[in-house]
Amino acid sequence: MVSLLIITSVENLQGRVNSVVKSFKNIPGIYVSLNKTQKSTENILRKNKINTNKIFFIDCVTSEKTREDVLHIAPDQLDLLSSAINAFIKDIKGKKFLILDALSTLLIYNDENNVAKFVKEVTEYASQNDVKVVAFSPKTKGKELLNKIFNFFDEVKKR
Amino acid sequence: MKKMLVLAFLLVGIILAQKNVDASSFNIQITIPNDYKITHPGEELVASIKLVNLGSSGREDVFLDYWITNPEQNIILQKKETVAVETQANFVRFFDIPEDAGIGEYYLHFKVTDFNGKESVAEHSFEVAQTHVDRQVSYWFAGILAFIVLIYIIFKSRPIIKKLQMQARVSRIVKKRLK
Questions:
Q1: Which letter, b or e, does each residue of B30-49 get, where b requires 16 or more Cβ atoms within 10 Å of its Cβ?
Q2: Alpha helices in chain B, H assignment, sequence order
Q3: Burial A119-128 (b: 16+ CB within 10 A, else e)
């Protein structure tokens, strides 16, 4: 399994994210944070005893630069976001993972087809580079989008 | 008596021949001042013409024909006049180049015809170039166009530059964190 789409309720979303990130243990990874700021996400992960030293955050919520090693990309700049993800994938050697939390947020800022195109690009590039991709989406949001992107993932789990 | 008649006949013949040679022997010199060698549509061409009657036998009227041909050899302007020439004559003539004249190499042709119908011809080339205003407009237009192209290139390359900057930043972050 290279790519996985997890569709879950809003209430369970963070718990699912935590358990997935925890499962990667010491593998370096990229975390695209679309729902919370990097600071908030990292705090939650740390509270759950997850080592974030090898996680590279892309914060799509705030543009305020708090740390040099965190990228801030506006959620409507899908090209740039895709390019940043690809750059991380290219530069991190060996095994790595990619978390997209949560895809449906992109629908607030972008057209559904553009989001689908972005997902396709990212999952394709990830699969070519043997990156484990886990994307999350709340159950209630973006049903049309989910229908369009199902096929880009190797596995879809509804919990 | 017979000898006298032959001699007289020869003398008349020589005089007539001499007269014909004199009448056709006009030397023409056309000079276009440097300032007018390159002219523009709607402007004036100035030419100085010097006529030398090599076989001058006194003052005589000659017919002058001027015409200008464009690069396609079409006549765009024509003038005629009669002047009296003794041994030599100098005159300056002005020609209005039409507003719609195209650019290229033109020729000013000049022909002198004496009362016997003998002709001498000369020509001089000059250039019709774009008007200063046209050129200025062209420069402005080219400048504005270049500016627009530059803005367009900058505008179009901004995302690329941004991506490259970001890729470089990602490389720095990854190196720093995973060293």
A1: bebeeebeebbbebebebeb
A2: 2-24, 34-37, 132-177
A3: bebbbebbbe
Cβ-based burial of B140 (10 A; exposed 0-12, middle 13-18, buried ≥19): exposed
**Cα distance between residue A114 and residue A77, in whole Å:** 10
Across the interface, whether the CB atoms of B166 and A28 are under 8 A apart is answered no
ipTM of this predicted structure: 0.84
Pairing mode of beta strands A29-33, A97-101:
parallel
B160 — alpha (psi -120 to 50), left (phi > 0) or beta?
A: alpha
Task: Please give the model's pTM, rounded to 2 decimal places.
Answer: 0.59
**3-class secondary structure, B29:** strand
User: Are B174 and A88 a contacting pair at CB < 8 A?
Assistant: yes
∠ at Cα A98 (A117, A119), nearest 5°? 10
- Write the residue in A69, A87, A93 that is nearest to B167 by C-beta: A87
Averaged pLDDT in 10-residue chunks for chain A of 159 residues: 86 90 90 92 91 92 85 93 94 92 88 91 90 88 76 87
Query: In angstroms, what separates the C-alpha of B136 from chain A's closest C-alpha?
Result: 43
Which residues in chain B have their CB less than 8 angstroms from residue A28's CB? Answer: 178
Mapped onto helix, strand or coil, the DSSP state of residue B51 is strand
CB-CB neighbours of B100 under 10 Å: 8
Mutate which of A65, A88, A121 to test chain B, going by most B C-beta atoms within 10 A?
Answer: A88
**Residue whose C-alpha is closest to residue A100's, from A129, A68, A78:** A78
